[in-house]
Amino acid sequence: MAFWDLNSLPLEEFRPGIVSKAEFGNDLIMVCMEIAANMEDAGHTHPFDQCGVVLDGRIEMFVGRDRRMLHANQSYFIPAGERHGWKTFDEAVRLLDMSVKQPPK
User: Fold this and answer.
1) Closest Cα partner for 95 from 38, 37, 61, 54?
2) Phi and psi dihedrals of 45, rounded to 5?
3) Of 10, 26, 74, 77, which has the maximum CB count within 10 A?
4) CA distances (Å), 74 to each of 40, 56, 65, in order?
5) What share of the chain in percent tops pLDDT 90?
6) How far, CA to CA in Å, does 20 sit from each of 11, 12, 55, 82, 101?
7) With 70 as the cut, is the pLDDT of residue 103 above it?
8) Topology of domain 33-100, per CATH?
9) So where are the chain's domains?
10) Distance CA 101, CA 35 (A)
11) Above 90 in pLDDT, residue 21?
12) Residue 65 has what DSSP assignment?
């Protein structure tokens, strides 16, 4: 699918507490996701860059040692290999997230 309407995009369960829709290209993944209230990812890493924008709600994110509270229309960038995670609070948060897979070395 080449076009999304983020106001009416149907999301499907990805894992408990997270629903999403993903579009996969050769090197790029675009994901619209909604994370339920009171969820947390204590941190992880992966070998590709990741970035996105908060569409609705608020989420606390950390990238390395930098920690920020993000709201609608605020964005994030996570370099490949950097430890990062997030936490939601009393409401769900909706994100548009993009990941670029690094080519093998």
Assistant:
1) 54
2) -135, 160
3) 74
4) 19, 10, 19
5) 88
6) 5, 5, 13, 23, 19
7) no
8) Jelly Rolls (2.60.120)
9) 33-100
10) 23
11) yes
12) T
pLDDT tens per residue, range 66-96: 999 999 999 999 999 999 999 999 999 999 9
What span, in angstroms and rounded, lies between the C-alpha atoms of 10 and 32?
Answer: 10
Give the separation between CA 55 and CA 16, rounded to whole angstroms: 20
In angstroms, what CA-CA distances link 37 with 10, 40, 79, 86? 19, 9, 26, 12
Looking at residue 100, its pLDDT comes to: 85
Q: Which tokens is 80 given? A: 């490949």
* pTM of the entire predicted model: 0.89
Q: Would you say 22 and 43 are in contact if contact means Cβ atoms under 8 Å apart?
A: no
**Helix (H/G/I), strand (E/B), else coil: 73:** coil
